[in-house]
Design brief:
alpha+beta, CheW-lke_dom, Chemotaxis protein CheW, 178 residues, CheW, 19% helix, 9 strands, CheW-like_dom_sf
Length: 178
């Protein structure tokens, strides 16, 4: 009997996933930990001219220039507050499965806690929010609702092109095509 209970417990643990919790104002949100590359302190950023107000800028990280968005400004139009718990979270962003992943920085408030749960605990909330496709299902716990943020759905085509312009084409390739 104890062997059956141990197998069930192991199966339940296998379904568990780790999420990084953060807040936008008083609301709780979660990112799947497998999408997080690193949690950094808030760093100075170089602004990008004529970018949307929620594009916070870029910074250099391990030889790459990484664009950063302020998730609070994107979601509710108000920049994240500069708190000691406000972090720059580096995530793996992939526009589609045919493209290689790229780093994207997110400014997140109170990004200091984690949650381990079954991803199936998150349920649709009954609203097709086309203006915020990155806001996924919700999960209820003793503290209220927490909403899953889907990293790969954060940027629309126009902003993706601004932040991740396609690399210049090799002149030899252009000559071969003509």
């Amino acid at each position: 009997m104890s062997e059956i209970i141990a197998k069930r417990s192991a199966a339940q643990m296998a379904k568990q996933a780790l999420f990084l919790l953060f807040r936008i104002g008083s609301e709780r949100y979660a990112l799947r930990a497998t999408e997080v590359a690193e949690v950094l302190p808030r760093l100075p950023l170089k602004p990008i001219a004529h970018a949307p107000h929620w594009v916070a800028g870029v910074f250099a990280y391990r030889g790459a220039v990484v664009p950063v968005i302020d998730l609070s400004a994107l979601t509710f139009g108000k920049p994240a507050e500069a708190r000691t718990s406000t972090r720059l979270v580096l995530v793996h962003y992939r526009a589609d499965e045919d493209q290689p992943g790229q780093w994207l920085g997110l400014i997140l408030e109170q990004a200091t806690d984690t949650l381990r749960c079954n991803p199936e605990d998150f349920q649709p909330y009954g609203l097709d929010n086309r203006e915020a496709p990155y806001l996924g299902p919700v999960r209820e716990d003793a503290q209220g609702l927490v909403q899953w943020v889907r990293v790969d759905d954060l940027l629309d085509d126009a902003v993706r092109t601004l932040l991740f312009p396609s690399p210049p084409r090799d002149p030899a390739q252009l000559e071969a095509q003509s």
